[in-house]
């Protein structure tokens, strides 16, 4: 299986650069895999598409303002993108700089904070911040929201709110779980009134999610690591939902990755730790019965994950249809509700 098997033509003007004024005002492509049918709806129609007793599972990670700017001790400008916080004063990061710093090199931020380069791990650098406050507090003072590279504009004040889900509570991500961005409080209340239950995982999305797949053979790709937590309360909710004959609906690919990482020999169990799970066609997803997801990049691991759920040709056909219908793509774009042919 080749990464080029997951390519599609995407006009650049369909890449959403700004969020819509209303979170739930985005479009929703409803993909019924069994019937090979597609329906064009609005995201605020979601309560009409779910059933009482369904369980929607969200990722409650909170995005850190993880982009910093500084200068090397030699004077060169450095852009720092935190990939993940690894300790109270340590982080793993990508560095945008003309000449990569060596181990022991110093980077200074605008407020005088000094950062020591502790070493390098492939494309990432291990950094130690010379601070007394927790690193998250420094980021809240000096950091900038880390918009994805395909959003080709400067960060503005609206991004601090809109590149964050309304249910975000566990700080640690450096990229948003974007399927959750469509939910506002009014929509959540309508879903509750419909009889839909909610559950939460935490998966701290890392900057590695934007790294292109370099191996042509899909099986040769090595996924980046991300930290997750699937708690006992959620495991029990999922068990009870399935036992009652209702559906588990994942909100975003990060939820699928978290639940599948916590599934051993077909049994979902509580789990907290790191995952490098790579889901592509041939992998059988057993933890969810439906998926709400944004439209993903060509040749990306996320496109491969949704193809594992619904079938590669079905997904690529839906993507071609979405392009013709002028759906908006990627983080601030529109969404899709994938209804697989039957529950696992």
TrEMBL record:
Pathway involvement of the protein, from the record: tRNA modification; tRNA-queuosine biosynthesis
Matches recorded under Gene3D superfamilies: QueA-like
Keyword check for Electron transport: no
Major location (coarse): cytoplasm
Subcellular location: Cytoplasm
Keywords from the UniProt entry: Cytoplasm, Glycosyltransferase, Isomerase, Queuosine biosynthesis, S-adenosyl-L-methionine, Transferase
Chemical reaction(s) catalysed: 7-aminomethyl-7-carbaguanosine(34) in tRNA + S-adenosyl-L-methionine = epoxyqueuosine(34) in tRNA + adenine + L-methionine + 2 H(+)
GO BP terms: tRNA queuosine(34) biosynthetic process
EC number: 2.4.99.17
Domain of life: Bacteria
Enzyme class: transferase
MF GO annotations: S-adenosylmethionine:tRNA ribosyltransferase-isomerase activity
GO cellular component, one term: cytoplasm
Subunit and partners: Monomer.
Family: Belongs to the QueA family.
Function statement: Transfers and isomerizes the ribose moiety from AdoMet to the 7-aminomethyl group of 7-deazaguanine (preQ1-tRNA) to give epoxyqueuosine (oQ-tRNA).
Protein name, as recorded: S-adenosylmethionine:tRNA ribosyltransferase-isomerase
Species assigned in the record: Luteibacter pinisoli
Gene: queA
